[in-house]
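Fold this complex.
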Amino acid sequence: MTQTTMAGSPIQIKAAPRAGLLKRFRRASPFALIYAAAIMIFYTVIFIIPFGTGIWLSFQNWDFLTTPKFVGVRNFTKALSDDYFWMALQKTVLFSVVEIGAGVVLALLLALALSYMRGKWQHFYLSLYYLPVITPLVVSIYLWRWLYRPTGGAINGLLSGIGLPEQPFLASPTQALWSITAVIVWAHLGTGAVLFLAGMNDVPESLYEAARLDGAGFWQMFFKITLPLIRPVILYQVVVSVIGTVQMFEPFFLMPGPGFSTRTLALYTYQLGFQALNLGYGAAVSLIIFVLLLAATVFQLRRWQMSWEH
Amino acid sequence: MLSRNHSQHVSRRQFLKLSAVGAGASLLAACAAPGAAPEAPAAADGSAAPSTAAIDLVVWYQDWDGANRIMNWVTPEFAKEHPDVNVDLQAIGFADLLAKMLPSIAAGNEGDVMMMYTDWVVATDISQVFLDITDPAGGAAALEEKMWPAAFQAVEAPGGKVYYLPWLAGIRGAALSVNTDHMAEQSIDYLNFKTYEEVIEAGRSLTQLNDAGKVTRSGYSPRSSQYPLLWSLIWQMGGNFFDKETGKWSHSSAEGEAAAQLLYDLYWTDKTCDFELFTSEFEAVSQQLVSMWGDGAWTASVQTDVAEVPVDNIVTPPLANATEYVLYPQHIGGWGLSKRLVDDTAKLDAGVDFALLIVGPDASLQALEFYSGVVPSKEVYADPRIEDVKYGAVSKRVAESMWPVARFPQDHVAQHAPASDELDRAMRNEITIQEALANMDAYLQEQEDQARERLAS
Amino acid sequence: MAVKTNVQPRSGESSLRNWWNSGESLHALLFVLLGLFSLVMVYPFLWLIFSSFKTGADIVRIPVTLLPQRWTLEAYQMVLDPERANLPIAYLNSILVTTATVITVLITSSMGGFIFARLDFPGRDYLFYFVLATTMVPFLTLLIPLYIVMSKLNLLNSLWGVWVPGIFSSFGIFLCRQFVYGIPRELYDAAKIDGSGDFGIYRNMILPLTKPMLSALAIFTFFGTFNAYLWPLVVLNDEDKLTLPLIIARLANRFGGTDYQAVMAGSVLVSIPPLLVFLIFQKNFVRGIALTGLKG
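Structure:
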């Protein structure tokens, strides 16, 4: 893709070598340069320095006050042999996979249902499903924590009312993680639904017409036309969700299950830093999370061949 | 892609205008509001400021009912003697205070006077945390004299220097709290339990089950106290789990297993409590779902005054065949001063006076009006006025029975939660007791070693 | 656009399969699903609202009932009392920080989108990919070191410290850049020929044209900032600097028992600003999602 400037020299937006740095500098407007400088300062302070400090920290034994002691790669080798780390990783992966999977499927179904509606009704239902999204997560968490009470909670009241056995929910090491997962899916359903609905709206009606003429059934049309065409949207949602879900903190901090049953990597890192005051190890764990996330994202992008720009 | 719907245009423009105005106004307000501007730490010029200017004293304390009431009583008392000092009481969330304290000290913006617990600071160098107040406190020896000997064990006073003033002790595990209505229901004479086994027996008689065999009321819940109880029981059986000379943790032992087994049996054999009755023992007590529990003597005042549940305290009795009657009372709360104060004499004096006032005999006595835990000082209990404060008699009863048999391991681990969680897994039958004890040792040993590594310089 | 069908039954096939294929069964299924799920969405909020009018004892009563035994406003009175729960101040703090963040994000993102899409300077593309790459690093990895940096800058325990890391938003810049690409280049070239400076073009042309995107971005940023918990938790200490989510957590975690009355009433009050914003800007919002979700 080649464009020409006022001066007539060709500039290519991709790949090929550009005009010399000095020339571009002189040509650039002060507006752009000032902004570039500002954003560089910002990211240096907010990102590069902390990231570098984090890397340095991961090789130390420090508790905020005493002199940091260099310990080499001990923190990293410890993570590999640390049962708590692997447990946290397992919990995180389990939670993320189920939350994203259930979230996407339910959002798709919801969007499909909503696509049948017109204007006012669609708006109404959409708003309804969006209520949990706009509610501050902290509010939702405490609300659900109260609803989930094993004795005298509203959910158990409902269950026993319809003849089902009451559940321990957050009091049970096996149920706690899924109780939290349900809340998060509930809280995020609206986002996915709206996104997918918008995607579905973009699919040209003519495609459906043609398919119908060919005698296609409902499911066929859904799987052969709708889904493939909104695939980019779904994948975008999945990629973004992975990054967000893995780092999710509030639910596990404010609504924990017993013992280690809900200790995800995010919570573990926070505890290491702010409760155990084992900053070096906390930094090492958080770096490992970074590497894993990066690998996961690259893998997803490669696999599904998404490109980020036009 | 570009929507040029006019009505949308107008609303968007309005929105932007509104927010611009709003933002402008709020930014102005933010500049004006004293709270939003970054605060610089106290000036370090060393000169004593003439005390004509008002001194701002920032006091950090843990946000809970008892502390709130005590602090609100102490502050006006302090103001009487120090009219020139403006006390800024800041209640910090319970768990937050621990998380915030050390980072704030590292950043230099901690409170001037801070509430702390003895076991929070064991993993780091205490001289880096708080100001050395040996002189105002009268020296470590003077402190030791005023306190019960066991209580002094919990205080870290390296080289005879004092860095914080002990204040109150909640004694989780060493005290038992009872719902007096439930006791009356079964005519249980809880004030005269001779052995721990009698407690368990009473717990059994108080427990209620539904048709499916699930516990609907727990006669005795060890949920919040099983970890400190484990230590008490191991000692009572003649064993030890930590050697403070070598720093070696050793829960894996015959006594360790026996003690853990006893606790395990509470859930699975005696069945005085189960895991699905509640997520929070404290809330369950408020709902009157628990008859006896060991969360600490402090719970009595909060439950009685706030939740209107009638609660009384007793000391945890020993095992029938204990080699030695020993109890582990978890930790002691205290007050430390910021190291910044060394540069500001006026504030330092105010801070010292404030701390000394709070831990002093009069304020401690008054504190027992709102607080049912125990005090680590002896003179408070010798004071005849103790019978006149609401929880004085209760506190005295527990303190005089408990302190003589109390013991602290003096370890260097600040965060015991993972070990406690491991024990819980064994209690829930997720892993064997041996595994749990081994895991506990592994974790605690690592923390201990790292702390010693940091401290060795 | 709905996936509608009106398939004629083919000869020889069972009517059940036809019913299935015609999608009517699906219609029915989907409506049932919709109705059911709507209840699930709303049910907790019903509990929240009714509980906020209950007495403390009523909230924890066993068995628990939806409607209050005795309606009371004491929960609200308690939570609005500055002595007891500091909610009014937290309101102010939250609105301050959120408004400031939204304004700065809109400005920096729209500028950035324009600059990265249409203007040039050495290293532009590298800088852009770097900005994008920063989203790869989880906030957790930066949490503790960023805290340390903020403490060195003396920004801790102040609303400034909460605001600063949010000034530039990689996400916002990315979205605006995409959007600006959609504005025909000819318009830009024409404006340049007319002699406008780049800032002038930004203010007079780009800003108005990107309004739909900016509305959506404003709304996203509003919710993200208003509801934020972890970073404000770490930065703020003083009770009179806390934002709303922190106040609710504080009320709920008061050692010595969750003050459920305060939490319920407080939660209702805390949810009002986002609800208002949502109701007012619904149309923009949905439109905005549609715009951000599209890939081309």
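Residues 91-238 of chain C form a domain with the MetI-like fold fold (CATH 1.10.3720.10).
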